[in-house]
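Review form for a predicted model. The reviewer records the input and the model, then writes brief findings.
Reviewer: anonymous (R2)
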Amino acid sequence: MRPTRNKSASWLLLLFRLPATHQAERVAIWRKLKRSGAIQIQTSTYVLPDEPARHEYFQWLTKEIRDAGGDATLIRAREIEGLPDDKLIDLFNSARAKDYALLAKQLHRLLTRGKKLDEVERIRKQFRHIREMDFFDSPRAQDVEMLLRKIEKTGNAKAPATVSPKNYRSRIWLTRPRPEIDRVGSAWLIRKFIDPNAKFVFSSKPSAHPKAARLKR
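Model under review:
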């Protein structure tokens, strides 16, 4: 369970503008913002909690927007006028609740008409991604966890096979150059739960590092 937000912490605001003619770039940026878990508070203004990985991700987006011919400004704010911390947290939780509700609907459908392992695993993967964006622990996450456990207890869907962390210590991990927030989060998890001394290589040529473990997300 994540702790509630410290009142002395801050928020990250990304303000940007892209020309209307750059439709493809606008869609690409919107998708990346959606995957990051950011919420929109005004037109072209998005917010994330001020954490190192989120700050780095917004920095990448800022550069990408500018490279595409737009304007972008990244701001760290202690307070946002008209949006107290409790209100912002509610907005994040509401966004995640909608994501969880979609997964719950899919799981109920699987329980009704029968389960396929690939479908259950797909939903598990989506659930893990939403949990990474669930900065304030939306209570709706428990609904999905209960449904997944219910499916596993039926015996028609097996939980993913587990691996021993000791087999992945003292390894070099390979990922593509300029990783996005999902891979940054994966690297943090590896350092925290598998190998605190893990090393990472950023390369688009896996053949140059044949012994490296790969981040495939």
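Findings: Confidence is low (pLDDT under 50) at residues 1-8.
Further findings: Strands lie at 11-17, 39-42, 45-49, 71-77, 172-175, 199-202, 213-214.
Recommendation: see findings above.
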